[in-house]
Design a protein that fits this description.
The structure is a homodimer of 246-residue chains. Chain A has helices spanning 20-30, 50-56, 65-68, 80-87, 98-121, 136-143, 172-175, 186-198, 200-208, 214-222, 225-241; strands spanning 42-47, 71-78, 125-129, 149-158, 176-178. The longest helix of chain A is centred in the middle third of the chain and has 24 residues, at 98-121. With 246 residues, chain A is an alpha+beta fold. In chain A, strands 1-2-4-3 form a four-stranded antiparallel beta sheet. The first copy, chain A, contains eleven helices and five strands.
Chain lengths: 246, 246
């Protein structure tokens, strides 16, 4: 899995389609990922149809990858299939609650990441769309997701048509704690974020946005308190609508 | 990454320790996983100390792997480091909300799974402890996790001392939906679950527990409605305590 060290998010794809054979093989292999009680609490909705891609796009802020990728995968936390199985087998399911959502979301995300690692090893390019949890109700409507199914991740998948720069990452010492959590002093923060803050592209980003610091790009533009609070409400409403908060 | 097709959860380990060099390399490589805004919204608490392992064990129902593994990793959704960075950079963070928890949990789980894929390729044996979200407040206390840090996954890591049977998995057709979600008929359920229900070990499990169906093992014993509801309350209390529901 040497590809992990040179991986980058790919947003531009060639017109070559991703074959069903390859897609199915990667999905089957990814399903070997560990899962709660071997229940595989996830489902994957595959979008290839142009009209469906266009319908999904607004939920992802119309990022062009959604329409341009060969395949869009929406991975869902799914306790519905298991619940129907129970109902058909004289068993009384109790999975319409928050913990069960977390269990299913965990299964879905672990499965998703193995799929990513396998697909990237195969030479495919991927973009993970964090927007999936921003306006989940739009996605629920387009994909006709029933109760106990909640979209949790989206991948656009295709053959790469770009080679962007590698992204920087924090040093391991920035996110690892020995035995207990050791809180960050201002000096720790200076040390861990020095590299990121000194990158030319980040300095440029601060300048063109008329900001004083890189952190302000995140708090004032990309992930604002106001947006986060509104989307928290929307996400909780969607969880209630899908039956996970009963 | 051919190991994915023969992976199994490993609960018994040799006494050979996992070296710091290997552990740090795998953590560094895993950090190339995609992350929201390149913020890496996770932290990893490493437990090697026997007293700390013993303190963590009850939160994981005293499963023996916690004490016997060379290393225990608790991976946390972490918006604290980013929040402190913002506070030190004249930026006003707004990450004490539910969406931000989901964002950080997503980052943490994707990172966790790449770590698993890499570690298994290296020959290490892992057990993913789903119990992490059952009694999170115990883990928060033992690891001294501050606000905006929430435990989300635990891995016990060591060199394998067993080769259990491979687990069965559902066929891809059981969890994949084309274009929209197609709900499951009783016939679909029969087809998708036939293999699992016919396995000798599962039939044996039903018999010794005096149950009528395999599904009842899950609803009546392993993951009951009553436990799920109690643990949902506990998880939401922990999220509130950690400052993610403000």
């Amino acid at each position: 899995m040497e590809t992990i060290n040179t991986r980058r998010t790919i947003r531009k794809y060639t017109t070559q389609p991703v074959s069903d054979e390859l897609l199915n093989r990667l999905l089957a292999e990814a399903s070997h990922t560990q899962t709660m009680g071997n229940l595989q609490l996830y489902s994957v909705v595959i979008t290839k149809n142009d009209a469906q891609k266009a319908a999904l796009a607004p939920a992802h802020f119309n990022q062009p990858m959604v329409k341009n990728a060969s395949v869009v995968l929406t991975i869902c936390a799914d306790f519905r299939r298991t619940t129907i199985w129970c109902e058909n087998r004289k068993a009384e399911p109790g999975y319409n609650n928050f913990l069960s959502f977390i269990n299913a979301a965990t299964d879905a995300l672990l499965f998703t990441q193995t799929f990513c690692n396998l697909a990237e090893e195969e030479g495919l390019g991927l973009c993970f769309l964090g927007t999936t949890v921003y306006m989940p109700k739009m996605i629920i409507d387009v994909l006709k997701l029933p109760k106990l199914v909640m979209p949790i991740a989206t991948l656009t998948v295709g053959w790469p048509d770009e080679t962007p720069e590698l992204s920087d990452r924090l040093d391991v010492s920035a996110f690892v704690h020995q035995e207990t959590y050791h809180d960050y002093t201002p000096q720790d923060i200076d040390k861990h974020y020095a590299k990121k803050e000194s990158l030319e592209e980040n300095k440029h980003f601060v300048t063109i946005n008329n900001k004083e610091t890189l952190a302000q790009i995140f708090t004032d533009i990309r992930y604002t308190k106001r947006d986060n609070e509104a989307m928290s409400t929307g996400m909780l409403e969607a969880l209630r609508q899908q039956g996970f908060l009963e």
